[in-house]
Amino acid sequence: GYTGAACNSSAPCAQRRNAVCSAVGKCICEKSCAGADGTCYDQHNDLIAKEVLLRNARWDHWKMYFGRFGFSGRMKTTIAPHWMNTEQDKFNIY
């Protein structure tokens, strides 16, 4: 998992995170999960639900998705069918 921290060769991941610096400059957990505090733990989260759509309560035809194309990778909203955004609107909940 991603700890939320950045790193490079001159500024490695903080030791308290128990993480390694990836090739793209992110502190990641190699064989464990990242907690909400940004630390790697030797336990795994339980899957609660698969392929969940996050819809707007007021405008239920709009849903959330992650833009995988481009450099931002930010969460966005869409009205398009899931096949048009390569099913990036489905989330697994842990």
Overview of the structural elements:
The chain is mainly β and 94 residues long. It is built from no helices and 9 strands. Strands 1-3-2 form a 3-stranded antiparallel sheet, with no helix packed on it. A two-stranded antiparallel sheet has the order 4-5. The two termini are 12 Å apart.
List keywords for this structure.
94 residues; 3-stranded antiparallel beta sheet; 9 strands; mainly beta; two-stranded antiparallel ribbon
Summarize the structure.
The protein is mostly beta strands.
Tally of contiguous helical segments: 0
Global shape: elongated
Largest sheet: 3 strands, antiparallel
**What portion of the residues fall into strands of 2 or more residues?**
25-35%
How much helix is in the residues?
Answer: under 10%
Give the strand order, joined by hyphens, for the main sheet: 1-3-2
Kindly, what is the distance between the CA atoms of the first and last residues, rounded to a whole number of angstroms?
A: 12 Å
Rg over C-alpha atoms, rounded to the nearest angstrom? 16 Å
Structural class: mainly beta
- Average pLDDT, rounded to a whole number, is 87
DSSP summary, beta strand count: 9
Query: Which segments are poorly predicted (pLDDT under 50) over 5 or more consecutive residues?
Result: none
The helix-strand sequence is: EEEEEEEEE
